[in-house]
Hints:
Layout: E1 3-8, H1 11-24, E2 29-34, H2 42-59, E3 63-65, H3 70-76, H4 88-107, E4 112-115, H5 125-138, E5 142-143, H6 153-163, H7 175-181, H8 203-218, E6 223-242, E7 245-246, E8 250-251, E9 262-264, E10 266-271, E11 276-280, E12 286-289, E13 308-311, E14 321-340, E15 347-352, H9 365-374, H10 376-380, E16 384-389, H11 397-404, H12 407-412
Parallel strand pairs: 1-2, 1-4, 2-3, 4-5, 12-13, 15-16
Antiparallel strand pairs: 6-7, 6-14, 8-13, 9-14, 10-11, 11-12, 14-16
Bound molecules: iron/sulfur cluster.
Amino acid sequence: MEKILVHICCGVDSVYALRYIKEQMPTAEPVGFFYDPNIHPEEEYNLRWIETKRVCDSLGIECIKGEYEVDVWMERVKGYENEPERGERCTICHDLRLEKSAEIAKQIGAKYLTTVLMMSPKKDFDVLKEIGERVANKYNIEFVSFDFRKNGGTEKMNTLSRQSQLYHQNYCGCIYGLFGQKKNVEFYPELVSFSKGRLAGSTQELLFIKQIRLFSENLGLNCFEQEFTFIGWRVISSILKLNSKEIYHKVLPYSVSIKGVLRDKIKEKIETENKVIYKLYKSTVEIWKIEDIDNFVWDKLRYNTDPVFIVQQDLNPEDKIEIQLKTEFDPTLKSRNLIIGNPNSYKKEFFYSDTDYYGKGGYSLTEIFSFIEKNVTQIKEGDLGVVILGANYCGKVGEKVFYTLSSKDILSI
Ligand code: SF4
């Protein structure tokens, strides 16, 4: 069987294009090649790879993951950073990706080469055709230009993408394209990682969920994602000093910023069942002493409230306290619950997809994979459902969303 190497940039662009290629060339064997060092940052690159893999696996198509040669890409586009989209930088970017694809096509003995970039209405079809033919010619293979968009191709792609719940990126891939697309913004959430772990609503959290979905689907399990919007919260910087010495602490989610530096002393100590609350003289800031702060999960929603610092040591009335805190809120963040198997099943096992702001808590992929693998028969037969809840460490938002929608609603979304 003749092979056709298909350069792939993301799950969305490949979900219909691969079906179309199979239909148009039924005697050829498509092999995917994900080579996209233009995607920034690396978490985003991995996310698009996982979604590409999901699409290829569901169609029984092998997909090769290329190297993430971001330095090669950066070097190649030097001097073209300010070019608009569809300009000279994009031509260089296509050239690099298609040239590598042609090289790999030759290596695996493919007779044909194509790219799903031709699916995107934002790409110049003629430029891609010209580049594809030139690089294919160099390696003595044939470039096939598919007009995937014709006969309602774009609508078919959107429908399939929605049905598969594919991650739909909101920028082409590189930082320069993103800078051009979003002008006059203070920061780019797509390029910021505020946390050491998997903060709720972050690309890292989404990548974690998508990895579990890919793993489960490859075991033949049904998966469904329940997306929700919530108010995100991040610590930009926090300092808590006790007698001029910084101490290990955490900040309770949704604490607001403190203006300048707060210098204070303990006014009152209140002992409760699970914590000691220290109140201060000059401000409404509280410091809580909790035994195991690394495994502490705050399960109540609290928005824009007085700052609370959490420590694991006792404080004394004579301690000189110095506090600084800068936080940020984002009302448009999204997270999701992943439901594996039947949500109606009597028995359910819950895991969380995020960690706390400090990268503590949460589960590892290995823990979740091993649970799913051990219980695959039960899940398949509908006796057990596995739910990965999103946005746990900022008020158990995912859990609240899961219980407000009945199983019937979940199935009919
Ligand atoms: S905008 Fe897209 S095609 Fe253009 S250089 Fe950036 S990643 Fe490549």
